[in-house]
Design a protein that fits this description.
alpha/beta; Rossmann fold; five-stranded parallel β-sheet; 8 helices; 5 strands; about 50% helix; globular; binds adenosine-5'-diphosphate; binds thymidine-5'-diphosphate
């Protein structure tokens, strides 16, 4: 089973994924946890470009191509082998991140075309959060907000995610989690929302 976790910056993705991993493990899944951008060469190139200290200029087209390249490498080298070994793959960001982020300032058809060979995940877990909550977490907890994290950008991003979730609703199992719940309640919320979808493996 291939599960992708998605959400805008500051949605609490990392925190939620840690709880999702515990939940799935308790249900008998052998979880392979991973993320995009990856730790592979392709992902490192992206982080270098996006990093605060980067002085190298890049175009949004180049970035979209790099994310797509990183995804295909991720699939081939990590995701597919783990799935073939019977693991449940849990990735922090995947295809919908490109469809939402890169489509903010590029034609969405072009972004989708670049990602044509990236298979769909079985399930997308989307963490829903208000822009105010996301911004307050980002400014409270991080010294340097990345380029992506201004209010206008987050609003467009959130709208793009909604569009993509609707567009793929009949092809992917989509689960929405409430990103506004208090930290201490995330595990219980996951239990309530996901128990029906991920029954205990025997
Ligand atoms: P993301 O991976 O989406 O950027 P993180 O999980 O790193 O988000 O969360 C960003 C910050 O917000 C972290 O410092 C975390 O402690 C805090 N945070 C995450 N989830 C919640 C929550 N449900 N309630 C309050 N604070 C949270
Ligand atoms: P990451 O370091 O995982 O940030 P976060 O912890 O907030 O998830 O990802 C770096 C940034 O890359 C993040 O702002 C989202 C963006 N991104 C895209 O624009 N397109 C993509 O396809 C992916 C996977 C990430």
């Amino acid at each position: 089973m291939f599960i992708a976790v998605e959400g805008i910056d500051g949605s609490g993705k990392s925190t939620t994924i840690a709880e999702l991993e515990k939940f799935l493990t308790s249900r008998g899944h052998a979880v392979h946890r991973t993320a995009e951008p990856t730790g592979l060469d392709t992902g490192r190139a992206i982080r270098e470009l996006l990093g605060q200290k980067s002085e190298r200029p890049y175009t949004r087209h180049e970035l979209a191509l790099l994310f797509a390249a990183d995804r295909l490498r991720h699939l081939e080298e990590e995701v597919e082998p783990a799935l073939a070994a019977g693991k449940t793959v849990l990735t922090d960001r995947y295809l919908f991140s490109s469809l939402a982020y890169q489509s903010v300032d590029l034609p969405s058809e072009w972004v989708a075309a670049l990602n044509r060979f990236a298979r769909l995940p079985d399930t997308v877990i989307y963490i829903e959060v208000s822009i105010d909550t996301a911004l307050s977490r980002l400014t409270r907890f991080r010294q340097n907000a990345e380029i992506f994290e201004t209010r206008g950008f987050l609003e467009k991003l959130r709208a793009n995610y909604e569009r993509v979730l609707t567009e793929y609703a009949d092809q992917v199992n989509i689960v929405r989690l409430d990103g506004e719940v208090a930290m201490g309640d995330i595990a219980a919320d996951i239990e309530i929302r996901l128990s029906g979808i991920f029954p205990k493996k025997s």
